[in-house]
Amino acid sequence: MGEQPVLPPPGDSLGEQLRAAIDRLPEGPMRLGEVVAIFGDEGLLLLTALMVLVFLVPVSIPGVSTVFGGAILLVGLSRLRGRPLWLPGKLRERELPGTRVRAALETGLAWARRFERISKPHRLAWLVERRGWLLTGNLAFTSAAALLMAPLGLIPFSNTLPAIALLFYAIGFIQRDGGAVLAGHLAQVATIVYFAFLAMGGTAALSALLG
């Protein structure tokens, strides 16, 4: 039998849920499929919040953003389609550096607790309950995951900004907090502006080299 999905006890805060989830992760190297199996379909947003903790530092672990971003993108697509999460075999079997991932999660957990303190359950709940606004939120969530996948981990904040957006979205969806979702939208706009700046800088540098 596989791992039983994580079903947090009633009344646990988001930080407590994340702490319990980190404690249940496999020792040593871990496969992405193992992590997903621990959470199950009901814990996908909690899994998203857990995965983005790795990127709440200026420079991320190389290669991890593509793996985690790809998994979160599929979570977003499953939310848009209203269907269970499906992972391709290659992504499911991708091995992650357990020690480094755990260390990053422990660091990120402190940031998650800070985000949690400014979240209020059922604040502006219509932003996560009304169909049109929920669709907008899910589309923004999915696009943030696509930006997280960009292999730019060595460029400061290129993974951090979309990760902050995703963490706000996950917290907002879990706690029905429209205020957190709005904060996610702001972080997403900041991400797009930053990526546009990087693109313009890269284009200017290339033009200078070719000129």
TrEMBL record:
It holds the Pfam family ExoD. InterPro entries: ExoD. The keyword Transmembrane applies. Keywords: Membrane, Transmembrane, Transmembrane helix. The chain crosses the membrane at residues 44-77, 156-174, 186-210. Coiled coil: none annotated. PANTHER family: EXOPOLYSACCHARIDE SYNTHESIS PROTEIN. This is Exopolysaccharide biosynthesis protein. The lineage of its organism: Bacteria, Pseudomonadati, Pseudomonadota, Gammaproteobacteria, Lysobacterales.
